[in-house]
């Protein structure tokens, strides 16, 4: 029996490296030799803070009992019966949610919102990419363009794809003042992509001065502020002559999301990127919005599977 090393997360901020059998692909499945597998911010949160359960399985927290890693990218080395769209040797990334394929959301290309019983996230409810090999459903694969590396593919499969989807939903253009709240990997990528789309001015806000310094060093931020700065909405309004045209919150924090709303110009767009808890506010008291103002508030949990391949066109340009 051929074996491989695989990383499990049993809890208590630990990683358990085990030797397990290399899986055999079944019908409509492929075996992928892992080349790169990213560590997402949600991984870090659940490793060190909590193992979260789901409504579908309240007694079985995410990650426990499964190989970790939901940003996998590699090369197909074996295929089961019924596979028709890919071949051995193809470089692929794996969309991190495997939907049932039949519910209305899956049919529309949104398996992340799958309502069927078969929904399972790689690395959460089924084995993921932190191993030498990954067993995946052929329907979850996306061909990796030659211009992109395996590392690019792993990053795009969740983090970059999520940031880029937020940029597109916010309709960022060369005439926009763009505010990014939360400069972790997704926020940093949002600034890079906003710069790539020609944003007029990019403003960053974070709790950590070193993140602001990194953004400045990379040349993707024009103005940076600590989140503890007094009167930030007013400062941003004065800097931009009315507020940000597009505000992207990548912090997932209630205070950060409220700041994004408070710092947006009339007729501006606000995009909440990534997973988050709830944010509560009173429109009149917290936003100071006149009755004629119009804000567009958009959500972006992750890039939908159905939009992954078209999104590569822009990302290949950024990579080049």
From TrEMBL:
UniProt key word Manganese: no
Entry EC no(s): 1.1.1.14
Cofactors required: Zn(2+)
Presence of keyword Metal-binding: yes
Annotated Alcohol dehydrogenase-like N-terminal domain residues: 28-146
CDD domains: THR_DH_like
UniProt KW keywords: Metal-binding, Oxidoreductase, Zinc
Superkingdom of the organism of origin: Bacteria
Molecular-function GO term, any one: L-iditol 2-dehydrogenase (NAD+) activity
Boundaries of every Alcohol dehydrogenase-like C-terminal domain copy: 185-282
Pfam families noted in UniProt: ADH_N, ADH_zinc_N
Recorded family membership: Belongs to the zinc-containing alcohol dehydrogenase family.
Protein name: Putative zinc-binding dehydrogenase
Organism: Escherichia coli
Gene of this entry: gutB_3
């Amino acid at each position: 029996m051929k074996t491989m090393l695989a990383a499990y997360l049993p809890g208590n901020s630990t990683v358990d490296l085990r030797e397990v059998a290399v899986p055999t692909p079944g019908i409509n499945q492929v075996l992928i030799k892992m080349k790169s597998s990213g560590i997402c911010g949600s991984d870090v949160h659940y490793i060190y803070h909590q193992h979260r359960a789901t409504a579908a399985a309240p007694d079985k927290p995410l990650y426990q009992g499964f190989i970790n890693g939901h940003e996998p990218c590699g090369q197909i080395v074996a295929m089961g019966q019924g596979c028709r769209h890919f071949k051995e040797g193809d470089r692929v990334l794996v969309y991190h949610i495997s939907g049932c394929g039949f519910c209305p959301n899956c049919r529309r290309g949104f398996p992340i919102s799958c309502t069927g019983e078969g929904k399972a996230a790689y690395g959460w409810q089924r084995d993921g990419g932190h191993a030498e090999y990954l067993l995946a459903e052929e329907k979850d694969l996306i061909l990796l363009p030659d211009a992109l590396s395996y590392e690019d593919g792993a990053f795009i499969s969740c983090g970059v794809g999520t940031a880029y989807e937020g940029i597109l939903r916010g309709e960022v253009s060369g005439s926009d003042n763009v505010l990014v709240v939360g400069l972790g990997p997704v926020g940093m990528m949002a600034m890079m992509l906003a710069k790539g789309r020609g944003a007029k001015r990019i403003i960053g806000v974070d709790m950590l001065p070193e993140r602001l310094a990194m953004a400045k060093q990379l040349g993707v931020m024009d103005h940076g502020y600590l989140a503890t700065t007094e009167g930030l909405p007013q400062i941003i309004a004065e800097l931009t002559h009315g507020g940000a045209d597009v505000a992207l919150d990548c912090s997932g924090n209630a205070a950060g999301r409220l700041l994004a709303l408070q710092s947006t110009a009339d007729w501006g767009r606000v995009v909440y990127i990534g997973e988050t808890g709830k944010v509560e506010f009173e429109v009149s008291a917290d936003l100071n919005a006149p009755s004629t103002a119009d804000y567009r508030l958009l959500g972006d949990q992750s890039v939908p599977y159905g939009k992954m391949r078209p999104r590569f066109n822009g990302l290949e340009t950024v990579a080049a």
